[in-house]
Design goal:
Elements lengths: L17 H11 L6 H9 L3 H16 L2 E5 L1 E4 L28 H8 L5 E4 L9 H14 L4 E4 L2 H11 L3 H11 L1 E3 L10 H7 L6 H13 L4 E7 L5 H18 L2 E8 L14 H14 L5 E2 L3 H4 L1 H7 L6 E4 L6 H4 L10 H10 L3 E5 L5 E4 L35 E2 L15 H7 L1 E2 L20 H8 L2
Parallel strand pairs: 1-9, 1-10, 2-3, 3-4, 4-5, 6-7, 7-8
Antiparallel strand pairs: 10-11, 11-12, 12-13
Helix pairs in contact: 2-10, 2-11, 3-11, 4-5, 6-7, 6-9, 9-10, 11-13
The chain binds ligand V47.
Amino acid sequence: MGSPASIDTSGLRNLTDPALEQIVAKLEAGERLDRVDGLAILNSQDLIGVGRLANAVKEMRSGPYAFFVLNRQINPTNICVISCKFCDFAAKAGDDDAYEMTMGEILEKVREPIHEVHLVGGLHPTWPFEYYEEMLRAIRRANPTVQIKAFTAVEIEFFSKLAKISIEDVLNRLVAAGLDTMPGGGAEVFSDRVHDALYREKMGAEQWLEIHRIAHSKGIPTNATLLYGHIETHEERVEHLMLLRDLQDETGGFLSFIPLEFQLGYTNLVARQASALDGLKTIAASRLLLDNFPHIKAYWVMLGEETASMALQWGADDLDGTIGEEKIARAALASSPLGLTAHNMLKLMREAGRVPVQRDARYRALTLFPPPPSPTHWSQRGARDVTAMIPSKIDPMIADTGAVSLENEELYSWDLAGISPDQLAERGTLARGDALAAYDATGASLPTVPPAIAESEASR
Ligand code: V47
């Protein structure tokens, strides 16, 4: 997972921005990029050059692959004791749009063939800490194989005050209840100026970083985010990345970084959403500056599907997941669909020239989707699509022709860079028939597609 010394820059000539030439020279020498380089990337007019640089680093780290997880995002309540000026999701108890999910409603969402539950919500004024522990336990009981990515640093600190126990004890108890990893939300922008202007009541940079430091010391992997495209400056974005890089040097506990593009909603903070070009440059700057982060995620919910797909050529190597019903960006009027089918996910990755790999929450590689046989363009494959044969309870993804299960290989996504899709396909087993059982997360027997039918549909 460490930071590689240097990259192959032989393809990086003819850049039109001299500042990028200097970055190439640094990469060739195995030198770390600094704040000046970060600003040069964000300010560069050579968008293609920026993309080629970031892509060279991405391909050196994770080869031709792009990663995704079958997941569901659950936001159990939007009732929140604090009010952040950028947030359209939060409500106060009694508001028309305030909601609280019942345990039954939460569990309904996890009884699906998924590998990750992403659980975050408002800071509820009266729910006791024990209720959150019970939530994790109940999710585990309902779906014993699912991994739980839950609670931002902001929620962890809130629980610590609520239960009057230390951050360490909060984390110990959550892990005992079933927590696997922590998401990267709540970081916003590590700038006192932006903090004071937009989220005064929320923790600042130091506390956010400290809680992730403690999580890492306990072996809990976490993610990190940056909320960009509002009142922050390019300098503040770069400073944010530098602080994350410092902590990662110290702990090595971050799995991925996710730039979150601000959705305007009803906030009136800015007149327009950040452009696709700004989004791509921010992804590229993240990949280039965060040389110690294994993964950069293009979050399709906030970027939009098309820009997220393009970001896979601008330094990103992950599209998060299928998600189901996301509420935070939707409350802020994001127009992306409620969830993606796994087939749509594969489409976005293949159109970007990537080889899709399904992963779990800890980035263990589960299934490889080698390039399809000709005709190769996705739009030409409709007639042979086998999904119509798959009972709705099973995600259609598993019927994709030629999917190769890597589940017994114990391969992590960061191990994959040097292995070609062909080599991987040779080691794996076909993910039809027997492999369907692996998706039977509840222990009940799901209907399966007889391999012979899937086979004959696939070859029609
Ligand atoms: O913490 C709130 C942000 C975050 C808006 O770790 C907004 O894998 C944009 O953290 N426009 C929650 N963003 C989402 C999040 C996340 C998402 C996907 C993957 C992971 C991960 C983490 O959303 C909040 C806040 O920073 N947010 N309002 C808005 N209007």
